[in-house]
Amino acid sequence: MTENLGHKPVISIIYSHSHAGHYAGATVTMTRMELLLTLLARFPVAGFIANGGIEVEGDAALYEALTGLIEAPKPNFNIVEP
Which residues are within 8 A (CB) of 10 and not within 5 positions of it... i.e. 6 or more apart? Predict the structure, then answer.
């Protein structure tokens, strides 16, 4: 889900087996470019947090852990192979 709230779009990523009694460990706000740079180009998250580009409410280490789970796509991936 995406929304445009002021100058930064908000992208919500939610995963849970059950929502009962569980709250997000972190809420992260950033631009689309910051999302792409941290998830796919492997730019360090800490630098964006330090300069205020990424705003975190909660445990910032959780977003860094998420970035470590994502693999950059292969640019020449053959969708159809013989």
Answer: 2, 3, 4, 29
pLDDT digits (tens, 9 = 90+) for 31-48: 888 988 998 888 999 999
Token pair listed for 39: 């998830």
pTM (2 decimals)?
0.64
Output phi, psi for 9, to 5 deg.
Answer: -70, 150
Helix (H) or strand (E) holding 8: strand 8-11
The residues spanned by each domain of the chain are: 2-15+25-63
Interatomic CA distance for residues 2 and 71, integer angstroms: 22
Instruction: Work out whether the CA dihedral 19, 17, 1, 48 comes out positive or negative.
Output: positive
Q: What is the rounded CA–CA span in Å between residue 48 and residue 31?
A: 11
